[in-house]
Specification:
alpha/beta, Rossmann fold, six-stranded mixed beta sheet, 9 helices, globular, disordered N terminus, ABC_AA/LPS_Transport, nucleotide-binding, ATP binding, transport
Amino acid sequence: MSGIKRSFTLKTRPPDTDPAPGTAGSPSGETLLTVRGLTVRFGGVTALEDVSLQVRSGEICALIGPNGAGKTTAFNSVSRLVQPVAGAIAFDGADLLRARAGDLAALGIARTFQNLALWPGLTVIENVMVGAHSLGRTGFLGAPFGWGVRSEHRELTERAYAALAVLAIQDVAFQPCQGLPFGTLRRVELARALVTRPRLLMLDEPAAGLTQGDVRDLGTLLRALRDELGLSLLLVEHHMQLVMDIADYVVVLDSGRNLLSGRPDEIRDDPRLVEAYLGSPR
């Protein structure tokens, strides 16, 4: 796997002040995402009850828990696919509960999905460019006359190719997605998220369906994205070895509630974590 190509135009939106050299990826940054007291109900079923978490700038935060713990519901609440009945979600001081899912790219948030949402008949680069559609500047008045369309298309194409180059899959840029290896398709979806130049990258089960070797490469890649592009990451993941290898901070949910949280070395052998996944001994 090639290293991150910093010369390309994928630098994330800069904060007010750039971090000092060597501090990218430090989990000691200011809080970027805050979820407080989140409660979600579907009919008479409470999926989340008073759930809280935070992601600091430059941090990889993992959200884990057994099946049915509420991880996906919490994730979808942050990405504005689910509306909570109580609680607060703030991103860099902005109230996300006032935002729509389509607003997140402009705010600096991008996400991937557990199930690949790619168009098989489109080329790889076309699929990646779809991720940048919300960043287009050509208005409905100018589009019929072609005002700015060609220059904007060229810019988005270059940005999409840059995202593919960062992930070392630019060699398949003009091939259809159909028929490509699953691990490559995972990277295509990741490139589609990166093309918006997010500050917070949300990953839903990024290791699902990958081989053990691909999972190791993914861990190396995610750390490199954090360190060299200045990203913060929030991931939902079942692959515990990946979580323990790359996460700076882990939040554990069980039955829709916070169970425990801390650094991987702090929670790895906690009896509550073992019980949540394996049940209490008889």
